[in-house]
Design brief:
This protein is 57% helix and 19% strand. It is of the alpha+beta class and 94 residues long. A hairpin with a 2-residue loop joins β1 and β2.
Length: 94
């Protein structure tokens, strides 16, 4: 069996949530290394689920220099992000 300090240690190693770490340790019978691999596999599965989401919101930016110009678009999933000043700063920096 594993202790709360084992969950804490795994959480510090991986940055995963407490409940995810607990589930990983339960699934791997307390083995830290196997639990890290288990979390990676689950992370990949979670990313695959998000892959099909549509990023329909975003911001465009244009820049020109003499006779050359570029227009680019940075998309996100929600309009809340597009209203965020940090998002606009990122787009301007790009």
């Amino acid at each position: 069996m594993f202790s709360a300090s084992d969950v804490k240690e795994l959480r510090e190693k991986t940055g995963a949530g407490m409940m995810d770490c607990k589930k990983a340790l339960e699934a791997c019978e307390g083995n830290q290394d196997k639990a890290v691999d288990w979390l990676r596999e689950k992370g990949i599965a979670k990313a695959a689920k998000k892959e099909s989401r549509i990023a329909a919101e975003g911001v465009t930016e244009a820049a020109s220099n003499d006779n050359e110009a570029i227009i680019f678009e940075v998309n996100c999933e929600t309009d809340f992000v597009t209203k965020n000043e940090k998002f606009h700063d990122l787009v301007k920096e790009l």
